[in-house]
Amino acid sequence: MKNLFIFKQIKKDFLWEYSYKISFFGQFAGMFLTLITFFFLSKTFEANQSIHLDSYANNYFLFSIIGIAFLDHSSILIRSLSSSIRDAQAFGYVDTLLHSQRSTISVMLCMLAYPYIKGNLKFVFYLLFASLISDFSLPLHTYALASLILFSSSLFFLGIAFLSGAFVLVYKQADPINYLTNILISLLSGIIYPVSVLPNYLQAFSDAIPATYSLELLRGLIFNGYLADEVDLDLIGSFFITCIIVIISLVMFNFAINKVKKDGSSGKY
Amino acid sequence: MSSGIVLSEISKSFNENEVLANFSYTFELNNIYKISGPNGSGKTTLFKIIKEIYLPDSGTIKANFKLTENISYIDNNPRSFFHRLNVSDNLEYFLSLNDPNYQLSIVEELMDFFEILNFRKTLFSDLSQGQMQLISIIRGLANKGKVIILDESFSFLDKNIKSKLESFLIDQQIKEKNLILFCSHDVVFSESNFIELKL
Q: Residue B28 has what DSSP assignment?
């Protein structure tokens, strides 16, 4: 059990990140700064009720913090694979990663384990810090259920991470998949404003992004204390899109590996 | 069929530059081969095709064992580690990546043999170039593959370590019947120990 590669990968990733101590602890300071900024921002609008925030107890602070924590979680996951591949290209161990006795996909999945854990922990820390600043507390089972939602939403981000990794494998510096996904989610998934404020034609795009449903489920859970069942139908569509993304990303990743094997460019950067 | 690796009609070009053209050769187990040739003659390309890092444009490679699992490829890039981790954490990670049934004791035995066991907890970035190269060699040797490829891996090593490595490889070839392929612009092994293949 202790010899499982996934544990070695998590240990290595943690030691690597922790070795940059200022950056490691700085990210928590950054979280706190974001929380305080949005706390005062929400205070600015506190007296004004918005129909768009009716479903969220008119609590803009908690609404935005859930969105930001979710975006942070997804960004960590999406960029992790491409940045690990980029490091491997630069330091020269990319061929060791791609040509070990293990299947490349399983190695890549293990490389996503630490970012996933880190993203989850940061999500919980965001909520805990927010509860310290603001006047609310969440029961323990809410955190557990929120982790479950994050886990299910990770499949979509995992697909994007593989697509992004494939891009970096072939085109090195370029990582437009990561950039575009972040832009799309930030603009359309209701991160710091509700989807309902968007014009109808943009809401249609928003509905096509699985992250929108995950976020809606998280907010439903945190604001109401239970998992809403009226979004069940949307979840089927979301799951369908996720499956397509995952299949495309795995095909593209294998295509990228074959391409760098053919043109001999895996180690180039 | 040969017990080693049979390469038939292998060709490989990068853009317009043809590096290998219809190359055929059989490397038998229990032998040491020196691949020689001027810079750019295709030595590294040949090694990387055998390791399946590159796909040939045409031709076939056959072996009666799985190539991916049985080839230890040691290059001449001593930087290909995690510099902010110590030697032991680096080796354990790569060993675990390469071999699902790895035994850490192999690494310790090798470090002991090359007299660098006391560097286990040293940060990789604090090692000299020669020590980094030696750790890279230990990473490759610890895999216990049937085939060991040393691609200019003797660079940066001092005379003492070089001769220890030579005797270790000759010992491996005799005991484990390994196939050892190497290229080096330095003088390594006495000529009676290897078969030379000129590209």
A: P
Tens of pLDDT, residue by residue over A118-174, are 999 999 999 999 998 887 888 888 898 899 899 988 999 999 999 999 999 999 877
| Contact state of A96 with B102 under an 8 Å Cβ cutoff | no
Nearest to A115 by CA among A86, A90, A152, A83: A83
pLDDT at B181: 93
B190 CA to chain A: closest CA distance, Å? 31
For A18, which residue in chain B has the nearest alpha carbon?
A: B84
Q: What is the layout of strands, in order, in the sheet containing B195-198?
A: B71-74, B147-151, B179-183, B31-36, B195-198
- pTM for the whole thing? 0.89
Is A12 near chain B, with CB under 8 Å?
Answer: yes
* Chain A residues lying within 8 Å of B82, measured CB to CB: 12, 16, 91
Domain residue limits, chain A: 4-10+19-263
Residue by residue, DSSP assigns B107-141 as: HHHHHHHTT-GGGTTSBGGGS-HHHHHHHHHHHHH
Task: Please indicate whether, in this complex, the C-beta atoms of A92 and B89 are within 8 angstroms of each other.
Answer: no
Domain locations along chain B? 5-198
Among all residues of chain A, which has the CA nearest to that of B103? A3
B195 vs A17, residue with greater confidence: A17
Q: What is the mean pLDDT of chain A?
A: 89
Interhelix angle A104-111/A232-263, nearest 10 degrees:
120
Dig out the tokens for A128 from the structure. 């805990």
Residues in chain B: 199
Assess whether pLDDT exceeds 60 at residue B188.
yes
pLDDT tens profile B94-103: 999 988 788 8
Among A91, A101, A263, the residue with its CB nearest the CB of B68 is: A101
Fold of B5-198: Rossmann fold (3.40.50)
Q: Does A103 touch chain B (CB under 8 A)?
A: no
The parts of chain A modelled with pLDDT lower than 70 are 1-3, 226-235
Using CB atoms, pick whichever of A5, A19, A258 lies closest to residue B96. Answer: A5
Phi, psi of B23 (to 5 degrees): -80, 125
